[in-house]
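Subject: sequence -> structure tokens, single chain

Hey, anyone have a minute? Need the predicted structure for the following. Not urgent.
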Amino acid sequence: MWIDTHCHLDASEFDADREHVATAARGAGVGRIVIPAIGRQNFATVRELAHRFEGGAYALGIHPLFTPSAQDGDLELLRAEIEASLDDPRFVGIGEIGLDYFIDGLDDARQQFFYNGQLEIAREFDLPVICHVRKSQDQVIKGLRRHQIHRGIAHAFNGSFQQAQAYIDQGMHLGFGGNLTFERARQIRRLAEQLPFDALVVETDAPDIPPSWIYKQRNSPEQIPGIGAGLAQLRGMAVDETALGTTANALAALPRLALSSA
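Reply:
Had a minute. Here:
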């Protein structure tokens, strides 16, 4: 069994065939799919999707790219939604949260307001976080340290070995996906090959970050076994061993995944 630790199954790209996508992933051996929220506009949607499909799970959070339209009161709404979800075995943590310094025009103070506010909530409820770290690895880890967050995933990690070690030392896991299947992605491939295996989880970020064999096409969670096989090849491991290991790593990163069986 594999776990896709990051899939935006609620995205409009899946409107025409969402049921088929979930069924195909299950048939390919993907036992769990974690669907992170991006803001108040899809809290209910990701929860409903996680319950609609076997193996579904969800996280609730305010994505940095959606902070321009977020309202200050959304933090209290998020807190209430999380409190109401604590008895839901499909709820696994807070995400997608973080910082983005790749996209021009985002207000840093606004991003920091929501990021730090969500870290406070994570600390209050002792929940893991799923972090967006695009061009922001150092700033995101600074927040994790300040708020003493020691569990979760740095999604789509693409930093240095030193930054990777900082996340690992903080207790975080690192998410790797389709990028590692491209030979030109040398840094990501080196990281995936050389970092401690027990720090790695696999993800798609579907519909984005497709692997090399569907370049520029829609990504989907059924691609996880192929991505995992690419990771296994880089590390000289058996595919089955990689599946078992990354599944154990995902359960360590997001312990509530174990509350309901796949």
